[in-house]
Amino acid sequence: MSEVRSIPVLAILVESDGAVEGDWTTASAGIEWKPVLWGLIRELAGAGQTEASYEEADFVVAAYRREGTAGHLAESELSCTRLSLRQGSIDGLEGSGQEVACVLFPSLEASLTALGKWVLEREQIDWPVLVVHMTQGRIECSPEEERKAGTVKVACDLRRAPSVFYNILVTADAVSAFPRCEEVAENAPPLVKTLYRMSSPIGIRGVELLARVGSVGESNARYFEAVRSVEDSVVTRFAGVLFADAIKQRGVALNECLTVRAFLMPKERETLDDCEDVVSIHQNRRRFAISDGAGTASYSAEWARALCRQAMDTPPPVFADVEGATTEGRTKEDEDRLRGWWGNALDYWRPEVPWERLVSRLTMVNKAKEGSGATLAGIEILDGGGQEGVRFRAWALGDTCVIHLRNNKVLASRPMVRADQFNNVPLLLLTRPGFVEIYLRHWQSWESTLVPGDILLMGTDALSKYILGALESGAGTGVLAWLRDLLCKSQVQGWHQFEEFVDARRYEEQMKNDDVAIVLIEMKKDEG
Amino acid sequence: MAGTYKQEISATKNLPMCLVVLLDQSGSMAEQFGADKRSKAVAAARAVNTALAEMMAPCTKGEKFRDYYHIGVIGYGANAAQDLLGSGSAPGGLFTPGELDSKAGKERIQLDEDDGTGKLKVVERAKWFDPVCAGGTPMEDAFQQATEKLKQWVAKYPNSFPPILMNITDGEANVPEAAEAAAQALRQISTNDGEALLFNCHLSATGAPTVEYPVSDINLPDDHSKWLFRISSDIPETMVKNAQKTGLSAVTTGSRGFVYNATAAKLIRFLETGTKVVTPGFDR
C-alpha cells in the first residue's frame, strides 16, 4: 500500500455576534459552536481506526458578522491549523492554549471568497472537503453568496476533492431535516431557500452515510438541517462516517500509474464565479466529467454542474459504439435508460433556479423558463491496470471532446475529429423535455485502452478545436510540450502555465475567447 | 451608405449596439389594419413591445443583464416627437437593458389559439407603452430628435456597430422636404464601423400587396413609397446573410431596409431586422 499521506480538510463557517478575544470569537447567544468543532476533531481522530487512519487534519475556521460592530479588522486570508490526530495528542488539547486559529470576516460572502481562494492555492487536497456552515439566519440571501458557495465547490471539484457543503440553520421554526426540493418549494422563507441551494445534494453515497448515523435523506435532497440548537445536529457523527468512508474509497482509487490534472479558466475579463464550464472528478479518481453550459441561456452553469453531479453519482448508460450520428445499435430500452439518467440530472438542476427571486421580473422568468443547455463528456477508468495498459470507457455529446494522444499524434478524437467540425451551434443536452431520441442518435459511447506514454485529454470546444487544429497543421510541438509540462508539474504550479498559454493563444486570436476546461490523464512510462 | 458593418456586439468589450424605434402616432393610425381586427396603432404598439421583449432575451442572464443594447422609442403625433419610455442613463437618454427591465409593465393578450378548453388563450406579455393616436405626422421632428440622441451616443461609443433606426409609419410626413433633409442628416451620423442605418416600414390600411426589401424603386406604386425608399438605407452585406438565416428570405444583396404596405406579420418581421439580425456573437 502506498504511503501517500491523506489530510482531510474541515472548514467551519459560523455566524457570530460576539466580540473578539485573541483568536477566538466568543459564542453568541444561540450558536454554541465550539463543542461542534471539538466533536468534529474527536470524530476524525476515531475515523477509520481499523485500517490506515488520519494522522493529521486541517481545520479552517472563519467567523463572520455584519460590519460596524467593535472588533479587529477583517482579514482577507484564512488561517489553517493542522492538528495531529493521534489520540494522545487530542486529549488535553482543548483549552490547552494550542488552539485552532479563527479568522473574522465582515460577511459570509467574504469568508466564502477567502475559502475558494484558499482551496485553489493548496498543493494537495484529495479528500472530501467538509464545509460546515452554522447560522442563525442573518445572511443576505443574495445571489452573490450563492455564487461564492458555488465557486468553492468548483474549486474543490477541480482539485479532485469533492466537497460537502453542510448548512445548519439554528432556528425555532420547524423545517424538516435533509429536505427535498418540494419541501422547500412554496412557502419556505427566502433564507431557507438560499441555504438549501447552497447545500450539497446528498447523492446515492450520501444516503448510505446518513443511514449509518440514523438519519434519513434521499439522494436528491440536500445536506441542510434546521435545529433548535447545534447539539441536535448530526453533523459531527456524519463527519466521522464521511471520512471513514473516504478511506475505504481510497482503497479502490486510481492506480498510481496514472497522472491526473484538471484546469479551468473563465473567459477573458470574467471570474471563476461566472464560468459556465464545469469539471468534476470522482472521489476515487476513476471517473471524470466536463460539461460546457450554453452562454446564452440562464442557469447554464447550474445545469452543467447538475449533469456532472449526476455523472459522478451514476455514469450514463453504456450504448453500442457507433461513430457519427445514427440510430443503428440504439434500442428503445437505450432511449428509456438515457431518459431516466437525464431526468435524474434534471432533479439536481430544477431546485437551483431561484424562482422566488425571479417571480416579479417577467423578462427574467421568461428567460429562465426557456431552460438551459450544456454539452457533456466523461471518462471512466475500468481497471486497476498494469504496464500492459489501462482500459477506459468514455462518452460525449456536443463539442466537448475526448482526445487520445499516442506518440505525439491524435490516435482518436470524439465527437469531433477535425478543427473545422466545430461550429457555433453544437448539440446540447437541454433541460426542456422531448429530445432524448436526438441525444441517443448522436451520443458517442466507446471503450479503449491507454498504454504507457499515452495522454487522454478531455476539453471544452475552444481548447479542443485549437489542439486538433495545431496537430493537424503540423504545428503541434508547442501544444504537446505544454501538455507534457502541465503533467509533470504539480497541480498548483501548472495553473500559471495553463493560464499563460491560454492567454497567449487568445491574444494571438488562435483560440476563441470562451471558458476553457480540461482534464489531462497520462499513463506513466515505466521508469525501470 | 458607407461602412464595414462588421463590429461585434459585446458587453465585456464595451461595444453595445444602439437601436431606436420611431413610431407614428398620428390620427390615421386609428384605422383598422387591413384584414387585422386591430387598429394600426394597437398592432404597432404590440409589435414594438414584443420587439423590446425579444431584445431583452439575449441580454438576460440569470438575475443580471448584459449591456448588449441601448434602446430608445420615439413616438410622433399630436404632441410632436417624444420619448415614449422616458429617459435612461445611456447617452442620448437611451435605456440599458437593466433599466428597460425595471420599466416593464405587463398586459394580458388574447391569442388566436385555443387554450385547450374551448376559450382563446390569454397570455401575459411585457409592455412598455400604450397605443396612442392623434394629430399629424411630425416625422421631421422625430428624425431631428433621433439625430441629437445619436450624436451623443456615437461620441461615447465610436467603435460600436452603427446605430439602427426603425421607423414605422402609415402616411406622409407633415413636411416631406424637411423630413427628407432630417433623414439624410440622421444617416450621416456614424461610428468607425459605418453610418447609421435608417429602415422604414409603412403600414397599410388597404390590404394592397406588400413590397419587401426592394433593390430598386421600379415596382413601387407611388411617390410616397418612392420617397420612403429614398430615405431608407441599404441593408449591409454583413447583415444580409444573417437576415436570410432568420427566415427573412426577401432580403438579398442590395436590398433596402424598407417594407411598403406591411401587414402586422410583416411589421413584426421588419422589426427583427433590428433585433435579431445583429446579435451578440454576430458572425461577420
Mean pLDDT of chain B: 91
Name the pair of protein chains with the most residues at their interface, and give those residue counts: A-B, 20 and 16 residues
CATH fold group of chain B: Rossmann fold
What is the annotated CATH architecture of chain B? 3-Layer(aba) Sandwich
If you compute it from the alpha carbons, what radius of gyration of chain A comes out, rounded to the nearest whole angstrom?
23 Å
Proportion of residues in extended strands of chain A? 15-25%
Number of E strands of chain B: 13
Low-confidence runs of chain A: 20-29, 68-72
Q: Report the order of strands and helices of chain B.
A: EHEEEEHEEHEHEEEEHHEH
Number of strands of chain A: 21
Distance between the first and last residues' Cα of chain B: 18 Å
Enter the CATH topology name of the largest domain in chain A.
Answer: Phosphatase 2c, domain 1
> How many strands, what sense, and barrel or not for the largest sheet of chain B?
7 strands, mixed
Examine the secondary-structure arrangement and name the CATH architecture of the largest domain in chain A.
Answer: 4-Layer Sandwich
CATH homologous superfamily title of the largest domain in chain A: PPM-type phosphatase domain
Sequence stretches where pLDDT stays below 50 over 5 or more residues of chain B: none
Percent in strands of chain B? 15-25%
> Any idea what the CATH superfamily of chain B is called?
von Willebrand factor, type A domain
Oligomer: heterodimer
Structural class from helices and strands of chain A?
alpha+beta
Helical coverage of chain A, percent range: 25-40%
